[in-house]
Amino acid sequence: MPTAPAKRLVKNYQPKKSKEDEENEFSSLIAFKNVLKEVADLAGQREVVAENLQNQVLQGIALLAKNLRDERKKALNQGAVLTQSLHTQIGTLDRAKRSYEKAFREAEKAIEGYHKADADFHLSRADVEKQRVNMNIRNSQSEDAKSEYANQLQITNKQQQQHYQIALPEVFNKLQELDEKRTRGMKEFIKRAADVEYEVSPIIARCLEGMVKAADSINEKDDSMIVIEKYQSGFQPPGDIPFEDLSKPDPDASAHSQTHNSSTGLNHMTGKGTTKDKLKKRVGIFGIFTGNKNNLSTDGLKEDFSDLPPTQRRKKLMAKVQELQQKVAQEQAASDGLMKMKGVYEANSMLGDPRTVEEQLNESVNRLDRLRHELVRYQKLLDQANNQTFIQHSPQSNRVIQNGQRASRHSNGSSNENSHDDNGEDHPDDAGSLSSSSASPESGLGTSHTSLPGSGHGSTNEQPINDEYYEADTPLGKCRALYPFDATSEGSIPMSEGEELEVIEVDQGDGWTRVRRFSSKGWEEGFVPTSYIECTLYAVDHRN
């Protein structure tokens, strides 16, 4: 990977840092950041490799190539000079030979002319002598040419022998040595290049191991839980829509419809508490969750976070309480330090004037009081939020909410819509405040606001319930426990496998059945999961 593109890649894809991302970082994002760090380290190692190759390999190759070119050129020039010298000597030998041949032919002619002249009786003695002198001259010239030719031939043969046996082999040996030097240099430089790579290979291996480790650190389940923790609202799903029989006028229909609409509207609130009418302007998964990163930011929120969903409000309150606790601890430490300083100044006035610390101490005490007051306020808000959440997950809170008050369902299936005494005071059951429909962990089912056929509505002047939630009345049937059950929610009772109990209220669609049993302590009542029991209900006469 080239160094410059790798560094640009790391720089361009480096995630932007924010406080929220640091608090809720996904394992995949952390792994991606670690991979970017490893890529940056790899780029750094590639820079080291490039620098070492430049200094230790490329420069050596350039120097060696230059020396080889110069030495080869010198050797080739030397060989050319030797060859030219040999060719020159061979040319001299050829000329000497031609001179010898010419002198030899002229000598033969002179001898032949002398013999003809000597045999010719018509020629005078002077002419014959002239031919003899010419013959001797030509013979002498021929012998000189012969000697020169022999000498040049000896010189040429010696030079040719020296050329092909000594001088030219030396040139070829020099060229061979240069080529071997070039080949040996290639071998050394290849090994050196490999050594340069090998020197950084442990670091590169660690970088690759870091990438693999970063990949192994990704946990999709944890990332999903971060998303859930970040965006869960705590609102409960809307309850079942009741059937409205228009053929039977019901005076309480309007009130019930109004109550249902209000509860449905409450349950239709989403991420930041927006209502159903505003959902059209929001985009996201099924109009519930949005992709806006600032969806749960603290900008523009109320001071008590009441405009946030329950779960998000509780998280914000917990963070605020922790922040205030840290501020209180810091301010307390600062106040204690000022107190000690004041005591030292009072004990020894030479060190300082206590009055200079008095004003700072008073300001610190005032700040500490304000922080403690604010801490108590947010702790109360957090307790209220926790109590509300605890109530919403109890079995009793899953019953019908009517007219702003949870209805009490008696053993005969009737509902006490308005539990008031003669003074008009409300007597809610032990479940506490209002809550939207919620399913208990044991049931795994959603809450239903509809009643079973035949349950109807009871009289409005029934007596309020006692501390055991409901009065002991005629049971609706019996049930047998199919599995053991440990009570973990408010209002539930434990039971063992095979135990028989009396049914005093059937399942209203929320996955819970109210039962009772007689023990040494008297009658015990509570809720058990419907899926854990097998019920046998008595026949009920509805003619009355």
Automatic annotation (TrEMBL):
Bias (Polar residues) occurs at: 255-267, 390-417, 446-464
The chain positions of domain SH3 read: 474-538
Give the span(s) annotated as Disordered: 1-20, 238-276, 390-465
Superkingdom to which the source organism belongs: Eukaryota
The signal peptide annotation in the UniProt record is none
Q: Which residue intervals are annotated with compositional bias (Basic and acidic residues) in the record?
A: 418-430
> Keywords for this entry?
Coiled coil, SH3 domain
Residues in REM-1 domain copies: 307-384
Q: What is this protein called?
A: SH3 domain-containing protein
